[in-house]
Design a protein that fits this description.
By secondary structure, the protein is α/β, with parallel strands linked by helices. It is built from ten helices and five strands, in the order βαβαβααββαααααα. Strands 2-1-3-4-5 form a five-stranded parallel sheet. Helix 8 packs across helix 9.
């Protein structure tokens, strides 16, 4: 089965490459294709994409196409103010620090795709439960900012058990940072973005 795909469409090559990197980090189960123009997107089966992350000038120049696909279109803006954003579209400010950009992406994904709804099917191998129930509990507390000692007290387990769970979680998921773990936890519905 083919992975769900998203397209990034922007004439700014550096912005496209940066956003592609962030999207692959936030949504590792998606294939991210990049295009420098609407013509390039149009030549590559645009209907095959779950979402388009598109520069505002491209959306404005090809409004008829994107207006027909408002749920699939995320307009890339340079400002957080709603007065400078297009109505009837989800907008993503790309002119902000990386942690804020990732948080905004996660909030968009959770709002639109909580529990995997409205997404093409994810390949079976990625749907398998990797962590035990206890590891999921520990992970949820880690990404909410609790330290090992607090987790041990909350779950009524020893500190060494928390450390073992933490190591096992990171090993099983192949992750090296809490930020990667946070993305995984939010994308899989283990933690609400508003609790982080």
């Amino acid at each position: 089965m083919e992975r769900p795909k998203v397209a990034v469409v922007d004439a700014n090559t550096l912005a496209v490459l940066g956003l592609k990197q962030v999207l692959q980090h936030v949504m590792p189960f998606m294939t991210v294709d990049t295009f420098g123009s609407f013509a390039e997107l149009e030549a590559n089966h645009p209907d095959s994409y779950a979402h388009y992350f598109v520069a505002m000038d491209i959306v404005l120049a090809h409004r008829a196409f994107f207006t027909e696909q408002p749920r699939k279109t995320i307009v890339l803006t340079l400002s957080l103010t709603t007065s400078s954003q297009l109505s009837n579209f989800h907008c993503l400010c790309i002119n902000q620090p990386e942690p804020m950009l990732i948080r905004q992406l996660l909030a968009l994904a959770q709002h639109a795709h909580g529990g995997g709804r409205n997404l093409p099917p994810i390949p079976q191998v990625l749907q398998q439960k990797i962590l035990t129930d206890r590891e999921i509990e520990v992970m949820a507390l880690i990404v909410q900012g609790y330290i090992n000692k607090q987790i041990a007290e909350l779950l009524n387990i020893s500190l060494s058990t928390v450390i073992t769970h933490r190591k096992n979680i990171m090993d099983k998921l192949g992750m090296k940072s809490v930020s990667a773990l946070t993305i995984y936890a939010v994308m899989h519905g283990y933690v609400d973005i508003n609790k982080i």
